[in-house]
Amino acid sequence: MSDAAKPPTLRERLRGIGYATALHRIRLRGRFPLKLLAVPVDPFPGSREMGERLIAGRLIHAGHNAPSRTVRFDDPTAPQSWREWVQSFAWLRDLAAAADRATGAKVAEPLMARWLADYADYDAATWRADLIGLRLLFWTAYAPYILSSADLVYRSTVLNVMARSARHLDRAVEKLPDTPARIAALGGLIAAGLLIPGGEARLARAEGLLDRALDAVLLSDGGLASRSPLGQLELLELLLFIQSSYGARRIEVPGMLTTAINRLVPALKGVTMGDGALGAWHGGSCVRPERVDRALKLSGAMARPPRVAGASGFQRLTAGRVIVIADAGPPPVARSGHASTLAFELSDGGHRVIVNCGGGDGLPQSLPPDLAAALPTTAAHSTLVIANTNSTSVRVDGSLGRGVEEVTANRQESEEGTWLDLSHDGYARRFGLLHLRRIFLSSEGDDLRGEDRLETATDRRAGRRSDLAVDVRFHLGAGVEVTPTEGGQGALLKLPGGRVWQFKARGGSLIIDDSLWIDLDGRARASHQLVLSGKGAATVFNWSFKRAGK
User: 0.85 cut: is pTM over it?
Assistant: First the structure.
């Protein structure tokens, strides 16, 4: 659930009551625009397959399938993500991928007319500021699909509701906190200021507010407070979409927008694996490499990925074709956060060797509730788990509770390779223990070694218990074939491309267990995991992954 979709506060509910009054409707009156000053080009293509389904009369998203002729935009049986998608008019992007203007207008205009009949006036859910912002971006970019009708009354109504939406945003956006949702609202306000006649003052005000919001949302290293790679990509795409409105008017893009894009790019590259897709961290699963690559290329920024993203909390180790990314930061204060502290992912070229199981954000279909609830747990990540409990508690609503408060990360580099010394206190309150993890990647990239151990954090008896179950999990990438080696303390990992890695461990018993991985299409794909198990706080696990051959 996004910040914007959280239950409204009392102040927000009272504000909504005011927006629903006749006085607010009077405030939204103004000049009727006769046309748009330009039509931006959406820099991102939609799904042709989804567009063809739209042409066939189906609005399909997040696993919900609705007939377009009788669709309810506020369908209470639909997932929240479907309602936001259909209300934002993001489906116009898919429609344009499958249909030219004439064919697409036959689909889009009846849907637009249906929406106008129900929501031309303020509605608390539909007129949420970030949804209005996205609607204005999509309405203006796909104006030929919703403004081709010869019906002058219909065309006038569409243009008027655009203007009224912008006037509402003029008032509503000031009350929003500085979050990505506010940036979406301001994006729509900027589009309105650039493309609806008489918007000069609105544009100047929106640019000032956007400058402040971007400064608050972006961390010093270009990451986000949510620590979500998917969130970083979505924000970059949004800023590039906003930028297209300036291009449509041939107006210079303001420096604060370019600066924000340039800050986002290296941070995004820093959480990209060898296959070009994003790491599975904090709510996000894999995103198609083509999508990531398009956003990076459109940005025009040539920055390299940082090895250390201190503010974002990720450590990146690279050598040859090998990439290791470790979660070396405290859990985020966000509903999509995961209890993944000190987990890591490993890729060899275009193949993932060690992964986290994934997340449910941004998927084309909703995950089963039980699976969605399991993905944020510590056990769904490649790290150490005590007594099958989370290093940071995961609440019923998906938000994170008490647990990790302090994470340390020390990095040393030499000609031999790179060492990471990491620790977290997520188990200190419950068990009186700290988790310490050491990771070494050789300079050739063919040797990854590690150690996981526990250290007493307090004088409490819990820290000396000998009956604690301790497991270190290494979830394997989909398609990795695993074969146990003689002696039961190792395994051979054969990647889909034929390359082989050898795993060895000591300090605990090794089993090969079932696992899963959320793939690019939002499906749970069966995979395996290596599980090192021991008893007691004094357990020390040593392990290594060595590549066989070149």
Answer: yes
